[in-house]
Known about the structure:
The complex is a heterodimer. By secondary structure, chain A is an all-alpha fold. In chain A, about 65% of the residues lie in helices and about 5% in strands.
Amino acid sequence: MSAENTSNGMDNFRREAAECWRAMPNKGLFFGLLALWIGLFHLLGNSTFGYKHSPSMLNWLYEMYANVEDDQHGFLIPFVVLALFWWKRKEWLPVPKRMWWPGLGLLALASLIHVFGYLVQQARISVVAMFLGIYAVMGIVWGFRMMRVSFFPFFLFAFCLPLSGGPSDAITVPLRFVATGITCVFSKVVLGIQVMQEGTRLFNPTGTYQYEVAAACSGMRSLTATLAIAVVYAFVMLKSPWRRALMVASAVPFAVVANVFRLSTIVVAAEVGGQSAGNYVHSSSWMSMVPYIPAIGGILLLGHLLREDKAPKTPRVIEGAMEPT
Amino acid sequence: MNRKAIVLFSIAAVMIVFTGGFLTFIRSHQKLTPPGVKLVQQPSISEQGKPVGTNSVFLPEQVANYTSKYIPVSDQVANVLPKDTTYGSRMYEGDGFQALLNVVLMGIDRSSMHRPEWCLPAQGWVVHKEEIATIPIPKPYPYSLRVRKLTARQEGKLPDGTMLRRSCIYVYWFVTENQFAAGHQEFMISMMKHLVQKAELQRWAYVSCYAACKVGEEEETYKRVQDLLAATVPEFQLFAGPREKGKNVASLRKTEASE
């Protein structure tokens, strides 16, 4: 029965996908413009040839995602966006689609932004231009209403912007200090473990273990992942702007909690089993997933508290009450 | 495709093609400002003895009490950095003190200017302290050079089991025709502003001085680094900062020590 259900599911998916494809007008125009736009970024997207000897923005992005752990989620985002577009198809399919001239203005703006990014040799500015241009092409071909209804999930492409090595330093350095400080206090006050802090270094008074909360342990990855999950949850499950804003803002403290949890498990392991035990917990790939439990759990709990479809309370029945006349 | 679609496609396509053409033209006609360091018509040499580029940055062989030896460009650096990068590197020694003075000058590609916050950790150093400092420079007139000073530590076990602990002082700054910058962000913002205002690409040099020392000797080592830079910088740097009126080097050092 299960194989039959799977087969039926696949057939339904294929049928619906074919219907979506047929329902979209001006596909040739869209893909033609998209090919030209992406072609521009493939041939003249990157103007810095140190480290990545390629003029292609796509190649630059690939190298960043492949070589920098903090940016590896960039590979997943396009699939997440496509999946969310599919999930929201009943919202954007019925929207009337017409070609929209002002979309050319947005495309011109994206071109100017890319020219600026290329000249000042800041590839990240050009990345923003590339995605803005794709959004502009959607607007030119299918109109403003399509742009409005697809803003989410389209803006999740913001997570495709590599931050490491440049903008992320402004976040990573303070995050390291915050994570180290909270872990030290938490270990002393809650866990009763005497841990000392020197900058971003944690060590015990006897010197049997010490750890440096390096950039890789700053919590940048958990912040990015938690923020992405919070944003998706906010826009999928919540409607009102203040609930969505609160959910997105909560990603920062949840990510800090997740990282402090991870650092605390390393301290506990080191206290029990010495430096090597702490190193094992630090290096273990499955232990590194454990901190996401409080982060995701926190998002789900907050989502439950903020939910908008709360069932109305049933009225209290008072025994012996008189019926109204 | 209907007529409206053809018109829209044509306008958008012209816009995209024009953008590409404009970028190609600008890139091939990029104006570079003069550098802020002295160049000599002598190529740098790689570790394998091959010439790297056509010019190199001039660094004096001998200054004050220091002698020096030439340090070749590592193959890894030469392969990774843009081909129009110019190099200069010498190891200075004197009275038991040793420091590496390194200059990397960009061409039209700013990615020659790499970050020490990446190189040092890659070599096993952990940066403990990062601060802005000033170094008094006596010539051509007394001025204060703003630099970024990193204090880093390295710990590890040698093959025979003994623990190795050492510190290092890493001082760096960026200089161009008429400007200094004591950090990566500062020089990039300046480069962007100059490009937008004057359509010229500032040609920046990244100057660094690295000295390893025992743990606890960081301040003493930094004083030696200051002495070395006070002696060498006037020999290769073309731009001097604003004149400090009514001050000599001794008073500049007093000011720097009190800060």
